[in-house]
Design brief:
4-stranded mixed sheet
């Protein structure tokens, strides 16, 4: 195991490396531990893929097209897990090289060392850190594609073609954060704000329920205007309870009391409660509302398209 005095390293390098690189070194142990878990999980997925390929009962279809799709998905899935493991192992090697060179510098220098010699060694260390950062960014999208292909193979019936799967991945890559609450009385639609990370989590956790980012958006972040407007008191209670119970993970009693406190706030539109990600965000909105300065509410934009009277 590579060990070194973390506090001493920070003192030695703080004034000699760029802030981004110093932060990288401070987080390197945590990053390396997470990467080790990612590699372990990828190896487990590799075993699952092999077992599924070997188990021909998984391919129960008698239709030639679906059989071909299954074979193609098997091949792509195995190639994807091999590619993912290669990327992760390469990054692990880069982390190891950084830590080894860091330990070597600490053995050779102290706070009173010749700064010119120390700077030469730190320049090499800086290049290794920059290389690791570049490789992380370079492989991020590739790893994401691999994981989506792998999870599709492991958790679905595999009747989709690879081109359809890749099209879904492309749709995901083009997805961006949508930090806008849009309430359209004219179109009878409410569109809630979401982040790309939220969409990704739904796709990962419920692969059988959601095939594309649009599936998640339609089912989780889109509702009817009447759902919030027809009985606003009930809607405020329902959304406040969901916010407290599901988003904040509070107890049933606490969530019930929180919902009761919100249900009779007549100036609070229920869609706002549905749109916020936390009780803290909702409190920010209520304070802005009370002070008549909603322009200071920065968590997301709010658009109300109301039919003229």
């Amino acid at each position: 195991m590579i060990t070194y005095d973390h506090d001493f390293a920070c003192r030695l390098f703080y004034d000699l490396l760029k802030p981004k690189q110093t932060d990288y070194l401070e987080n390197l142990v945590e990053k390396a531990n997470k990467l080790e878990k990612d590699i372990e999980l990828a190896n487990q997925k590799r075993e699952q893929i092999i077992n599924k390929i070997n188990n021909t009962s998984d391919s129960t279809s008698s239709k030639p097209k679906e059989i071909r799709n299954y074979i193609n998905n098997s091949e792509f899935s195995y190639e994807s897990i091999e590619n993912l493991l290669h990327n992760l192992n390469q990054l692990q090697q880069k982390y190891t090289n950084i830590r080894k060179y860091l330990a070597l510098i600490l053995e050779s220098h102290n706070l009173e060392s010749d700064k010119s010699i120390l700077n030469e060694d730190l320049q090499i260390l800086s290049e290794k850190i920059s290389d690791a950062i570049y490789y992380e960014e370079l492989t991020q999208t590739d790893n994401q594609k691999c994981l989506l292909l792998i999870d599709n193979f492991l958790h679905t019936s595999n009747t989709e073609t690879v081109s359809e799967i890749i099209e879904n991945i492309t749709n995901f890559e083009e997805l961006k954060d949508n930090l806008v609450l849009k309430v359209s009385e004219k179109n009878h639609i409410v569109e809630l704000p979401y982040t790309k990370f939220e969409i990704e989590q739904f796709l990962k956790q419920y692969p059988n329920d959601y095939k594309t980012p649009q599936d998640v958006i339609d089912k989780e972040f889109t509702g009817t205007y009447a759902m919030y407007n027809k009985h606003p008191i009930i809607a405020r209670f329902r959304e406040a309870y969901y916010l407290s119970r599901n988003k904040e993970m509070k107890s049933i009693i606490d969530s019930f009391n929180y919902a009761k406190n919100m249900m009779f706030k007549r100036d609070l539109n229920p869609t706002i409660i549905a749109a916020v990600k936390s009780e803290e965000q909702l409190q920010d909105y209520l304070e802005c509302l009370e002070n008549n300065n909603l322009e200071n509410f920065k968590h997301f934009s709010i658009i109300f398209e109301i039919n003229p009277i």
